[in-house]
Amino acid sequence: MNHYDSYVIYPQEAFTYLIVGLCLTMIAYVIIQLGRKQVTQIIMSNGVGEGRDNRVFINKIWAQGEKIANKVFLFLLAILVIIAIFDLGMALRLLNPIIFLGMTGYWFLDIVHDEGEDKAKIDLEPQNNKLRYFLRLIDSRRHPFSLPLVLFIIIVLTFLLSKYFGFSLSLETSGNPYYVMSLPAGTFITAGLVFACSFIYIFQHGDFFGIRQANQSDYKVMRIHFGELIICGATFFIWLLILIVALFTSY
């Protein structure tokens, strides 16, 4: 996305990766649905053996989150400064994957750690039936096809097909963007929300890396919806405006 203007047409591998990703998502969804039909009993035995839950370790990390985050930030900053001395371009290219891993790691810890019984029992469902139905439709605990994932796929398809059909998107990948942010930047942050919704769905329905299944509270889901409202909303309207301008200028 950051090198959109350098492509005459995207290679076929880009379409293949997208199709493979969608197929893997569908396969994972089917596996989880089949697994929900099997009744399993987890034997808890003093935190060892089959009943060991790594959530206890995650809670300890979350409790010292600020101290650990500061140390990790200083370490990464020192590494980037050293790399920048020898190769400034490489240091700048490493910023995006580091930020993305940071977002993903934060969402992982935030969703996995125990919130306490008070927040876990909060019922945030609205009284209005239509609004309640809409929130259940986009609830990340019910299915993996979240709003950020759908928007991300739509934008990626737009990138790929725009080159294929011969119209160009004005992405403003250099300089100050005309909108509140560039479309690649919005898509980048949206990808982080995709992981957040995926973690919600995974831990709602099964074990993952030794972290036991647990019901995800309305409080966690509404926090993600708040992020979706800001990030996905802005990204969607920027994508829509750019697409409309591209279509009108190409004909």
Report on the structure:
By secondary structure, this protein is an all-alpha fold. Helices cover 67% and strands 0% of the residues. It has nine helices and no strands. Helix 4 packs parallel to helix 8 and helix 7 crosses helix 8. It is globular, with a radius of gyration of 21 Å.
Provide the fold topology.
Blueprint (H helix, E strand, L loop, with lengths): L11 H25 L18 H9 L1 H22 L1 H25 L4 H4 L8 H9 L9 H19 L17 H23 L12 H33 L1
Helix pairs in contact: 3-4, 4-8, 7-8, 7-9, 8-9
The proportion of strand residues reads under 5%
N-to-C CA distance: 24 Å
Using the CA coordinates, give the radius of gyration. Answer: 21 Å
Taken in chain order, the helices and strands follow as HHHHHHHHH
Poorly predicted segments:
39-49
- State the secondary-structure class: mainly alpha
The biggest sheet, with number of strands, parallel, antiparallel or mixed sense and barrel status, is: none
**Net shape:** globular
Mean pLDDT: 79
**Percent range of helical residues:** 55-70%
If helices are DSSP runs of H or I spanning 4 or more residues, what is the number of helices? Answer: 9
Number of strands: 0
